[in-house]
Structure formats: structure tokens, C-alpha cells
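Q: Convert this sequence to C-alpha cells.
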Amino acid sequence: MLIREYLEKLVPICDKDWAVFSTKFEKQVFKKNSLIIRSGDVENYLSFIETGMLRFWIEVGDKEITFDFAFEKSFFSAYLSFLTRDTTNWNIQAITPIVLWRISYTDLHLIYEQTVVGEKIGRLAAEDLFIKAAKRKIDLLTYTAEELYLILFKEQPHLIQNIPLKYLASYIGVTPQALSRIRSRIY
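A:
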């Protein structure tokens, strides 16, 4: 199972602990453009992307502002809502068809209690989410739109081709026309 391979890169999991883990993860499939979570909902899951990609966005007036992406072989969540059990103010949407392995808030806490490595994996996953969020903030403050595009292109070259131009433009803080000019200078 792909999620076990991913988790074992963080910490070895014995078969006994995996038996507990594997009963708590639920596989879900979403179609392209499906909303995984809506603004105003409480996030109940920590999810692992087996295949596909998604975007995080907020509504500001009549505009959708994309502020992050998540790609296959990574965890994601509306994590603030997940932790606080309060509603989220952002949306998470599938850009492509997507296969997720999800664990509920309640089941995650059972894993923390019932396994030897559960808390360590939870801590490492939380640290990974924090690092990505902190890096994104620093990137927005220190790089130009062109540099942000190049970073994303360097980190996810095979995936960036599947992200609509309007989402990429929003992500780096420019109009689709400005992104087209950036792309024409690069290529």
C-alpha cells in the first residue's frame, strides 16, 4: 500500500501497528473539480493523496484566490480546522480526479493511543504541514511572481502542466495575462 511506503519513510511500522493503521484509513475517490472541503465546514480528516492534485482557495469578493496546491504522495488537510474543530474559511478542490486515503480526527487519536509509532507519525506529519506553510509564507514575501513560478516548475515539473493557468496565476499573485508573459519569457 502506497501510504504505508510513505509512512515508513518517516518511521518503521511493525505489522501489529500497521494492522491498526490500515483499519482506520478509508479510501475515497473524487472527480475532477469536486470540493473536498467547503468554507464553513469543519475539517474531519487528515488525507493522503495517492493520485491526483488539488488546490486550496478562498473567496475574496467575487474572486477565487488560490493559495496552495497539494500533489500525490503527500498529506493535506484544512489543518487549522482539523486541530481546533472549528469551521474553515477556505476550500479544497480536486484539480484532477483524485484518490485519497483519509483518517478521521477520532480515528487518528485512537491510533495515537493504540500504536507505538502513531504519535511520532502524527508529529512528523504535522511538522511537514507546518514546514510547507512556513515556506510558502517566506516565498511570498521574498520572491517575485516569476521566481515563484520557476520554483513550482522546478519542484513539480510533470504536474504543473495539469494546473489551469488561472489557478497558477492566482497562486503567484498575478493575472493570467501576466503569467502568460512570464511563461513566454522563460520558454
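The chain has two domains: 2-133, 143-187.
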